[in-house]
UniProtKB/TrEMBL annotation:
Keywords of the record: Iron, Metal-binding, Zinc
Family classification: Belongs to the DPH4 family.
Molecular function terms, GO-annotated: ATPase activator activity; ferrous iron binding
Protein's UniProt keywords contain Translocase: no
J domain residues: 3-74
InterPro entries linked: DnaJ_domain, DPH_MB_dom, DPH_MB_sf, J_dom_sf
Gene name of the record: LOC106068455
Superkingdom: Eukaryota
Protein name, as recorded: DPH4 homolog
PANTHER family recorded: DNAJ HOMOLOG SUBFAMILY C MEMBER 24
Domain DPH-type MB: 79-139
Amino acid sequence: MENLYEILNSRSGASMEEIKKSYISLVRLHHPDKKVQQQSHCSDMANSEMFIKIDRAWKILSDPKSRAQYDAMWHERSLVQDLPIQEMVDFKEFDLDEKLYTYPCRCGSLYVLTDVESQFHFDIVCCGTCSLTIKVIYSD
């Protein structure tokens, strides 16, 4: 799970005005249509990828409801990040079942991600039954 505040060069307690100001500054710097003399193809791709991250962070943090959900998930992730990771799992390996993404645990239970958690790229998931933990890899 990426720190969206860090992507926007901001902090979690920042006001909406501070976040918006930072967003506008970063968009001007990384917009893919920005033409810089002698800019290489590699830096064009890096700018495009960074622009996508900036835009995604802004879309989440500019909406008060999404921001509150993200903040809660970030806090939860911070609490579980020190647990030992049993396995790295690509998000594509999860099954979709009525807005829940599931992946089988070796104990017979399931690792579960909600639709919102998957949108925020929540990456550390604990089994609902045992103490095993996986890290989810998102390939955009």
